Amino acid sequence: MRDARLPSVILLSCLLGAVAAGLGAQSPSPAGAAAAGPAFRAEGGSYLARGSGSSALESEALERARAAALRALFAGLGKDRLFAEVFLRDPPIGLVFTTESSLKEGALFTANVSLRVDDESLRIVARGPFLAAALALLDEAESATLDAEGFLAAAAEAESAALLGESLGRYGQALDRVSAALALIEALEDGSVLSTAKGRSSPELKRFLKALGDTADKGVARIRAAEAALAKDQAAAAASAVIDAALAEADQAESLLAEERPLVADPSAYGPERLEPLLDRLALQSRALADALAALKRAASSLPDKGYARDKLLFAERRLATAEAGIAAAHRAVDREIRDPAAARAERARRWKWVFLHVPREYLSLRMVPPLGLLLESESRFASTGLFDFRLRSEGSFGESGGVFIRTSLDKRDLPLAGPEADLAPVESTLSQSVDFGVWGRTLVYAGYGWDWRRSLEGAVDPRPGRRIRAGLGGVDDTAGFKRADWLIGLSYNLPLVPERFIVADSLNAGLEALFRLGKIAVLEGEIEHRAHRDPAAPGGLDAVLAWRLAFGLRLPSAFLWGLEYSGGAARPLAADGSGLGEYEARIGRLRLILEYAL
Fold first, then answer.
1. CA end-to-end distance (rounded Å), the chain
2. Rounded to whole angstroms, how far apart are CA atoms 267 and 274?
3. What is the pLDDT of residues 51-89, one digit of tens each?
4. What is the Cα–Cα distance from 327 to 87, expressed in whole angstroms?
5. For tag attachment on the chain, is the N or C end more exposed, with fewer CB atoms within 10 Å?
6. Helices H / strands E in the chain, number of each
7. Is the dihedral of CA 296, 297, 302, 305 positive or negative?
């Protein structure tokens, strides 16, 4: 239940450290202590983890238990925080949560939840999205490190030339790049992944960045020591006080983020009782930073366009912008966890993946054939056919080496009849239902009955809708892991529309239909029929209609069938004695798109 991945990785970094803090902050419940088995263990090719949670609401207790089970899984596997973030953002289909118990003791619900995930799913995450995210973070951090080295060199050169304002700005830029690089790789603790730029691991890069940051801090301290001698007038001194206050706000914001780093890194490890007060503090700090930035903009009007004071003000603005971005990101992460917990997001993502990626057993399917298509005439053209078909079908094969087969289908179909021209031929619209029942062993034998709920011609409803019977053969296969009719061939017969007299096209009608499911990825269908249909415009009130249909589709992904249907028909009116009048008319072929969703 996936690039905006890299900023989210920064916000959810240090997951394992926060897991340890979260486990320590949660007091054990009696139900949690009574849960059977260890919190984490391996079973064959899968891993099992358990967690418990308590709350006044049962749904919140279940969410906390799922989050605890996820933390137990990551701790038991020894995965770093980046792996945990990638896993939570894009959980594998093989991840399954099971509610073991949910009991109310006094005013609290206590829930125990287990999860199971197979080893292959974990390897797919480790070799795919985790490795890609780790390499991207390391390479971006290497780029930021290279920028920081350049800014440090420029700052040292400006300081030696007594260009204090420029030097302070360069040191500030170096600090920003060091902070950005450290934030990028803070969640990555796996030392086996090396950057493609310089082949350094995350621990090596962190030590090098810390040394660069120490150098920049010392440079800033030297520049600040000389600022008293450079403030020459009262306006500059007032502006300097405003700048100092703004820098103090930036320091306070950074202190808040450092103090609450475990909560900000993994809000899912804590409950609302810890997150809601932090959300209020972050909101207050955000307003204070906004006020400080507004004061800086007012002070800028009293400073010259160039000089140390202007450079210092720009430095303070950058510090405030960086701090404000950090506070805003933390506020979003905490607020999101309060409104939509991580465990709930992971479960929702897994369910959505099932909706789109499950292998259908075709117990229930909905097919639509929209009217837009290619008309195959003397001059083919792409246009609306004026015909719209859909089908809702349910079927199943039950038993082991033999059993029963049941199928029911609701079909809406449009069929052109006889007319002076193909485009002007009247269209018969039918809504019909059918039910088939069969038995199968080595071969499937089935029979069925169908009837029309509604049959109309150009809006006029037929008071005597048709009925039909059919029978056929098929084959049931379970190589897909479940039993399904893989091929069906059947003959159908419509009960006469005019039973009181013999009309060849009415009394001796027939239809042949076939279905072939080619494994899990393709479907081939065909149908041809010759029947009588009511047409008040015909001399005898009937048309003889020859209709055919051929369809082929592919499942991409498995739940969706995309394909093309070639269909056509030819009709001619019948005289009162049942003989045909003239040649077949309204010959037309259509090529239309098929869209089907199956469960």
1. 18
2. 9
3. 999 999 888 888 998 889 888 888 888 888 888 888 888
4. 25
5. C
6. 15, 19
7. positive
pLDDT exceeds cutoff 80 at 344:
no
What backbone torsions phi and psi does residue 187 show, to the nearest 5 degrees? -80, -10
For residues 122 and 406, which has the higher predicted lDDT (pLDDT)?
A: 406
CA neighbor of 492 nearest in space, from 567, 436, 568, 410 = 436
Judge residue 307's burial from the number of C-beta atoms within 10 Å of its C-beta, 0-12 exposed, 13-18 middle, 19 or more buried: middle
Phi, psi of 162 (to 5 degrees): 65, 25
Name, in order, each residue with C-beta under 8 angstroms of 480's C-beta and a sequence gap of 6 or more: 359, 519, 520
Task: For the sheet with 46-55, list strands across it.
Answer: 40-43, 46-55, 108-118, 96-105
Query: Residue 487 corresponds to which tokens in the numbers above?
Result: 């091929």
> Could you say which DSSP state residue 574 is in?
B
In sequence order, what are the residues at sequence separation of 6 or more whose Cβ sits closer than 8 angstroms to the Cβ of residue 170? Answer: 151, 152, 154, 155, 158
Strands (E), 381-466: 381-384, 389-399, 403-416, 427-440, 444-457, 460-461
More confident residue, 409 or 159: 409
Is residue 450 predicted with pLDDT exceeding 90?
yes
Contact 88, 71 (CB under 8 A): no
pLDDT in tens, 452-511: 999 888 778 887 778 999 999 999 987 656 788 999 999 999 999 888 888 888 888 999
pLDDT digits (tens, 9 = 90+) for 254-264: 888 888 888 88
pLDDT of residue 328: 92
The H-or-E segment that residue 557 falls in is none
Q: Is 82 exposed, middle or buried (0-12, 13-18, 19+ CB in 10 A)?
A: buried
Q: Which residue has the tokens 């031929």?
A: 425
- Cβ(133)–Cβ(86) under 8 Å? yes
Q: In whole numbers, what is the pLDDT of the chain averaged over residues? A: 82
The amino acid at 264: V
pTM, rounded to two decimals: 0.57
